[in-house]
């Protein structure tokens, strides 16, 4: 059975074609049904290999939040824990929608982590490697999940029924990390990277806030942890300890030490690199005032 599946995968994948973005780019996401078929076959094969490890999983973790808010750093640091695998932007919601089984979904997450490792764990000009730890491997797989905060929030808000399907698929308690950053820095970075005005970046941010609020309302308070990135950076060991306990794993001292060593000592005030009008500042502040988890942020902080 195993060899048959492997043969079918080899036949389905074939020779990489530069014109085919999915086959050529290992981090590309499935688009066509043929892409999904390839992904499902591959996940079925690897699911057999790791099925005993998957039996040890106790928590499923995913992120909701805002692009350019430090998700990638937090996810990569957690991925360095010996008992945690957090994939980089697989995007689990479409996999649930396409009917992937528990083992198939978990296998896809492991493969995504390996593929991210194969490009040096570098993303948007930042390297997210943690020396001496377990990125790309695990000791005991207690927690598995995905870091794709903004997209996951939008997808679940648009199709709330997929949250229950996700619960049914993973069959362990879910744990959600909501990472926030000062909205003024966040919006400045969005505007710069997308080459759009502050007002348009603010509108995108506001829409994302609404999606996150919808998802948050569907969760039990015990299922979500709010992580303030501006507080995380100056004290990563303390923040990671809290997150580990939330995920029900041991915050091992060497893990905390090695992770802390790669975190910059302070966040960058990117808001100071853009011209903010009084109207733009007021618009962002009104968003913060509408959502309690963001209400403590101010432009002059």
Written account of the structure:
By secondary structure, the chain is an alpha/beta fold. It has a five-stranded parallel sheet, with helices on both faces. A hairpin with a 2-residue loop joins strand 3 (122-123) and strand 4 (126-127). It has a single domain (54-294), classed as Rossmann fold (3-Layer(aba) Sandwich). Helix 1 runs antiparallel to helix 3 (33-54) and helix 9 (183-194) crosses helix 10 (198-217). It has 14 helices and seven strands.
**Main sheet makeup:** 5 strands, parallel
Q: Strand pairing plus helix content: what structural class? A: alpha/beta
Mean of the pLDDT scores?
89
- CATH architecture term: 3-Layer(aba) Sandwich
Order of helices and strands: HHHEHEHHEEEHHEHHEHHHH
Shape: globular
- Oligomer state equals single chain
Rg calculated over all Cα atoms: 20 Å
Q: What is the class in the CATH system? A: Alpha Beta
Low-confidence stretches: 1-24
CATH homolog superfamily: P-loop containing nucleotide triphosphate hydrolases
Would you spell out the secondary-structure blueprint of this structure?
Elements: H1 2-13, H2 21-24, H3 33-54, E1 59-65, H4 71-79, E2 84-88, H5 92-97, H6 102-118, E3 122-123, E4 126-127, E5 143-147, H7 149-158, H8 161-170, E6 174-180, H9 183-194, H10 198-217, E7 224-228, H11 229-232, H12 236-247, H13 253-261, H14 278-290
Parallel strand pairs: 1-5, 1-6, 2-5, 6-7
Antiparallel strand pairs: 3-4
